[in-house]
Amino acid sequence: MLVVRGLGLGAAFAVSLLLARDLGAADFGVYTIAISAAMMLAVPGRLGLDQTLTRELAHIADVGSADAAIRAFRRSASRSAIVALLITIFAGLGLGLQVETGSPMVIALLIALTLVPLSAGQSLVQAGLAGISRPVQSQAVIETIGPVVALTGVAAVGATVGVSPVIAVAIVAASTALAVLVGAGLLVVQWQAAFTTSRPQPAVERDPVVDGIWALAIVNAAIFAMSRVDVLMIGGLRDESQAAIYSIASIIAALVNMVTMSVVLIYRPQFEQYVRRQDGGALQRVVRLVTVCSSLGALVFAIAFALAGPAVLRLYGTDFEVAYSPTWLLIAGHAVFSVLGPAIPLLMMARDDRYLVFSTVTCLLGNVALNLLLIPRFGIDGAVIATLATLLAWHGHAVWRVGRRWRIDTTLLAVLKPARAITLRSSSQ
Q1: CA count, 13 A, side-chain hemisphere, 424
Q2: At what angle do helices 380-406 and 208-237 cross, to 10 degrees?
Q3: Integer Cα distance of 34 and 36 in angstroms
């Protein structure tokens, strides 16, 4: 699974590299802003239904009711489709009033709006596969198809007629549509194996845990918004070129976070097992291992960028060589977050819902406020400061929260402390 997802990440990285080289900073900024805007609009289009659908289907699959599963999927799909289409239509009408100007930004945004319903569809298909306990490889394949097809399309078009921001957005939309179709096919093929019968069965009681997953949906939406809002605000408060430069810096720096999340993903079963058993001692040992591995990975990446960063940025073109300083600062920030440990994933697994919603939304609003204050004056550097300040406060407070509630130290300093038996307290205590 990690290999397949790694292929998808590599393809997405290659797409950004090719487009940055072919388009230059200004046009790449148009592309980046259009995609970011569409992805931001796609968040409310999902309504968090992808999160709730996974848990609801998992509950239904336990009793083998195919009819109930179909009803649940249709209900989620229809609601998400209606909201996503309404967002697309109203946003399209607003942009359509300006299309006569012939602005590449307006045309790119109009095409990017097709990603709103497509993204919602892809999320629901993946949620369906996860809910009926299909192999995670199927979900990883869906995530990988889009970037791989987009890479092929960008390379082919760039080598023949040449690529533009509008064409690049269209290629991404087409590749996402293909990923949705393939995912829907996988879901249909594997649906029958998930249920013992397709005959009508008694109504399945709603799993009470489903209601609590709305909190997780809000948290994930806020986290996703934080990854896009900086680019949009730089584009709106400064210009497209600076948005493109910051986008490249954040893409490269995010690879450090991917190292941490990959380590967490590997040890997630142990995390969940020890949280369920309330075995704090065993959980502390796993947390230490995750923190050490992710910190070492971040250190290696930081050293590698310090040595090869200028050469890597030259691959994107001369316009992006100025991205070295913000990229290095963002990498250093993510390395610090790795040293602080997986406090936030641990809180998610322990279902500390109220705290997660409050802290994540507060972090997002704080980031927006600092961006409004700093970007007009300092540009990219202001966005970097706003991002690192809010994320450091978020991670730091999460470390304090875990220590206060469960007496577990998620930071690298825990390696220096002797192991001890700990009994976890519930998040309500």
Answers
A1: 27
A2: 160
A3: 6
Residue 387 near residue 230, CB atoms below 8 Å = yes
**pLDDT tens digits for range 261-320:** 778 777 776 776 777 777 777 888 888 888 999 999 999 999 999 899 999 899 898 889
Q: Tens digits of per-residue pLDDT, 50-108?
A: 666 666 666 665 555 667 777 777 777 777 788 888 888 888 887 776 655 668 888 88
Q: Is 53 exposed, middle or buried (0-12, 13-18, 19+ CB in 10 A)?
A: buried
Cα–Cα distances in Å, from 373 out to 309, 366, 382, 397? 29, 11, 8, 23
| Residue pair 401/352 in contact by the 8 Å Cβ criterion | yes
Task: Give bridge partners of residue 279 from the DSSP assignment.
Answer: 423
Residue pair 135/57 in contact by the 8 Å Cβ criterion: no
3-state secondary structure of 423: strand
3-state DSSP assignment of residue 279: strand
Neighbour tally for 386: CB within 10 Å = 24
Distance from C-alpha of 316 to C-alpha of 310, rounded to nearest angstrom: 10
Q: Which of 260, 413, 251 is nearest to 345 (CA)?
A: 260
Cα 425–chain centre separation: 30
Q: Where are the alpha helices (DSSP H) in 47-135?
A: 49-63, 66-96, 104-112, 115-131
Contacts of range 310-318, beta carbons closer than 8 Å, 24 or more positions apart: 312/252, 313/248, 315/17, 315/21, 316/17, 316/20, 316/21, 316/248, 317/20, 317/21, 317/24, 317/25
Q: Cβ neighbours of residue 364 under 8 Å, at least 6 residues apart? A: 222, 225, 226, 229
Q: How far apart are CA 275 and CA 138, in angstroms?
A: 27
* Residue whose pair of structure tokens reads 């050469």 in the numeric block: 311
Residues of the chain under the 70 pLDDT cut: 1-6, 8, 45-66, 97-102, 130-142, 191-217, 269, 272, 417-429
Paired tokens of 428: 């309500």
**Count of H-run helices and E-run strands, the chain:** 14, 0
Within 8 A by CB and 6+ apart from 3, the residues are none
Q: What is the pLDDT of residue 347?
A: 83
Nearest to 219 by CA among 315, 358, 99: 358
Residue at token pair 């796609």: 42
Enumerate residues 6+ apart whose C-beta is below 8 A from 8.
140, 143, 144, 146, 147, 148
